[in-house]
Design brief:
This protein is mainly alpha-helical and 290 residues long. The protein has one domain. Helix content is 73%, strand content 0%. The protein has 11 helices and no strands. Helix 2 runs parallel beside helix 4, helix 3 crosses helix 8 and helix 10 packs across helix 11. The longest helix has 31 residues. The radius of gyration is 19 Å and the shape is globular. It starts with a helix and ends in a 14-residue tail after the last helix. The mean pLDDT is 86.
Length: 290
């Protein structure tokens, strides 16, 4: 029974990370109606930056917050320099740009930091107060960090003028422009926040899966499954989808299909959701009058 409970609690800890990646995907999707295929590679590159700062002698949390800030600025720059010119381009053009960004960030990470697997430190003492029978210290710590990030984002979008403006720009760009909101800049801030969220997720998952240029490939797939399962147009539901995916991954991997086939859980969820319930469990049903 204790092993079963540990699988559930470990799945919930992983679900925090999957939910945060799903949230980053939903933020970009709501503003552009496109999936950012480069989200995982951008997070990996940010994690390499944190690793380089730690190797240079920075304290962990100093490197952590510096990386989040750098990632935010980089996300804004990517949107303004690379994506802004193709905002109104056909869908296929945007897809090609996203795939190009994926290849660029992956190649840059391998070129600059090499393809050797690197150990990334955990900031949480494995024998500290956070460790218990159901959670390891890193699982508990990473879950608390991701929940703090999600809570801060909720407060930002709910109570700040910039957050409200971003929500308005995503839901109705034309009306937002009429009331003076700079929609293009709101989109850039959204890209910056998505990049920062990805950086946090990368730094939390790196001590578990180790750091290499392809570290986030599987995590992105789980995040995509979570976003689709919860609802690609519903940020809160996407986070909830992350918890569901995390628990399912652990339980099925431990008791049904084995750890070697755990990634197939995400693939089955993606195909099943798109086939049976394309709007997700809590997504909006959009009816268009023609």
């Amino acid at each position: 029974m204790e092993a079963f409970l540990h699988q559930i609690t470990s799945g919930l800890a992983n679900g925090c990370i999957y939910g945060s990646v799903a949230l980053a995907l939903v933020m970009i999707y709501q503003a552009t109606h496109h999936i950012n295929f480069a989200q995982g590679e951008m997070a990996t590159f940010s994690t390499f930056i944190a690793w380089a700062l730690i190797q240079a002698g920075w304290p962990y949390w100093g490197a952590f917050f510096a990386t989040v800030a750098i990632s935010f600025v980089a996300g804004v720059a990517v949107q303004r320099i690379i994506l802004r010119p193709v905002e109104k381009a056909p869908v296929l053009t945007n897809v090609i740009v996203f795939i190009g960004l994926l290849v660029i960030f992956n190649s840059l990470a391998g070129w600059i930091f090499e393809h050797t697997i690197k150990a990334f430190p955990s900031p949480f003492d494995q024998k500290g107060a956070l460790a218990n029978k159901l959670f390891s210290a890193h699982e508990m710590g990473s879950a608390l960090v991701m929940l703090a990030v999600l809570g801060a984002l909720y407060a930002f979008f709910r109570f700040t003028p910039v957050g409200l403006a971003m929500r308005a720009a995503a839901q109705n760009p034309e009306s937002a422009r009429l009331v003076g909101i700079r929609v293009s800049w709101m989109l850039a801030v959204g890209w910056g926040l998505a990049a920062a969220i990805g950086a946090v997720a990368g730094m939390m998952v790196a001590p578990v899966v180790y750091l290499d240029p392809n570290m986030m490939s599987g995590i992105l797939l789980y995040g995509f499954a979570a976003a689709l399962l919860g609802g690609i147009d519903n940020p809160g539901a996407a986070v909830l989808g992350g918890f569901i995916v995390g628990v399912l991954e652990n339980l099925l991997g431990a008791y049904v299909i084995g750890t070697e086939l755990k990634l197939s859980v995400a693939l089955v969820l993606i195909v099943g959701t798109l086939t049976l319930r394309p709007n997700g469990l809590f997504g909006k049903h959009v009816v268009t009058r023609v």
